[in-house]
Task: inverse folding
């Protein structure tokens, strides 16, 4: 459920970028250095926040007698998972660039009007939703192996380090 909620959050973020790109708002944002910097720094801060939370989870995790995490753990609530997917997508300035530079190339004549960009963007959102939901289902099936505390700690630590590094890189990136 958490994976599907996160996928829905990401797809919702993409739908917002789609509407913004179709209306020309994302192009204005992409051209405005200061507005894009605000989105970039907000996204970087959010990635670092998620990374630190993941690193903290890896540090706090203790093995039970069986070496597995307590099965009572339910994971993220749906609303939290949705919010994380939404905010991580909206805080990614590369989405504005993607929707303003790549999508129009697939529209009729390479330019695209509001309707054609909207249809292409929403199709992209649907494909993302399907892909991420399927990915989440596969990971959920592998849950027994992933609930082993050593594996979970390693995954939390690697994910946390990667998110902090990506956030730092995004914050330091020059336009």
Result:
């Amino acid at each position: 459920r958490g994976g599907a909620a996160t996928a829905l959050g990401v797809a919702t973020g993409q739908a917002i970028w789609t509407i913004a790109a179709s209306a020309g708002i994302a192009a204005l944002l992409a051209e405005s250095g200061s507005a894009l910097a605000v989105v970039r720094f907000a996204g970087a801060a959010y990635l670092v926040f998620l990374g630190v939370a993941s690193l903290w989870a890896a540090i706090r995790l203790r093995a039970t007698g069986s070496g597995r995490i307590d099965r009572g753990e339910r994971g993220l609530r749906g609303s939290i998972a949705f919010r994380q997917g939404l905010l991580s997508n909206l805080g990614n300035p590369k989405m504005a660039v993607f929707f303003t530079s790549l999508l129009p190339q697939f529209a009729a004549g390479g330019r695209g009007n509001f309707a054609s960009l909207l249809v292409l963007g929403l199709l992209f959102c649907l494909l993302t939703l399907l892909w991420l939901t399927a990915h989440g289902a596969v990971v959920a099936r592998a849950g027994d192996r992933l609930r082993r505390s050593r594996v979970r700690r390693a995954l939390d630590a690697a994910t946390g380090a990667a998110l902090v590094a990506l956030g730092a890189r995004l914050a330091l990136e020059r336009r």
About this structure: The two ends are 37 Å apart (CA to CA). DSSP finds nine helices and no strands in the chain.
